[in-house]
Amino acid sequence: MKILTMERISMYKPSISASDLKNWYFCPRLIYWRRVFRAPWVSGKVVKIGRKGEDLSWLPRIARFRNCDVKRNVCLRSRKYELVGCIDALITCGRETYPLELKRGSYIRGHDVQLGAYALLIEDAFQTEVRLGFLYYPRKVLQEVKINHMLRKKVIWTINKVRDIIDSGKMPQPTKEKWKCLVCDHSSYCRGV
Ligand code: SF4
Predict the structure, then answer these.
(1) Global pTM?
(2) Taking CA 82 as the corner, what is the angle to CA 80 and CA 84, rounded to the nearest 5 degrees?
(3) Model confidence over 48-87: pLDDT tens digits?
(4) Closest approach atom of ligand 1 to CA 30
(5) Is the CB of 190 under 6 A from ligand 1?
(6) Does any ligand 1 atom lie closer than 6 A to the CB of residue 165?
(7) Which of the 8 DSSP states describes residue 82?
(8) Gap from CA of 127 to ligand 1 centroid (Å)
(9) pLDDT confidence band for 115 (50 / 70 / 90)
(10) 10 lies in a domain?
């Protein structure tokens, strides 16, 4: 299995990305603007900002990752799930492999599904089983997420939800959580539609 670069992964745009799944939980209408209407990100507010370049050289020094190998920004594609994704860090400890996703702020719905999507990508790419993943929040808050049957089902369910919007081209209802519109790139034209 070849690991793809972030540039190469953009060639597979028709595939759903792990970030699309997270974005669906933020607001399904976001999928419409990004994947159907193809509106560009304009400001890079909360939904977009990541921590891709952050230094993680300290990670192998903490007990649970001692002697583990850490690869940054690993992009994978799965034909089986028609899914793509760039994992912030791929941690290999002996026979175990874990995805780690860097997050700003605190946990919101969808972070676990994004991580679960990375687990499916790793499993398909390396023919292995991923049992755990990690969400890493500011101030070195490391949250362990079990990649169990329920999470896998939730990932597949969400892929289908995103696929429905892309295939139908129908605009979903806006979110009822108004604060999300305040940090959304599409707020200037979205709420009036
Ligand atoms: S402006 Fe609000 S309703 Fe529209 S896509 Fe953004 S979060 Fe959703």
Answers:
(1) 0.88
(2) 115
(3) 445 566 778 778 778 889 889 999 999 999 999 999 999 9
(4) 5
(5) yes
(6) no
(7) T
(8) 38
(9) very high
(10) yes
Q: What is the pLDDT of residue 42?
A: 63
- 1 within domain boundaries: no
3-state secondary structure of 102: strand
Tokens for 165, please give them.
């919007």
Q: Which residues pair with 142 in a beta bridge?
A: 136
Expressed in angstroms and rounded, the spacing between residue 111 Cα and the centre of ligand 1 is 18
The range of the structural domain enclosing residue 64 comes to: 6-190
CB 162 within 8 Å of CB 27? no
CATH code for position 132 = 3.90.320.10
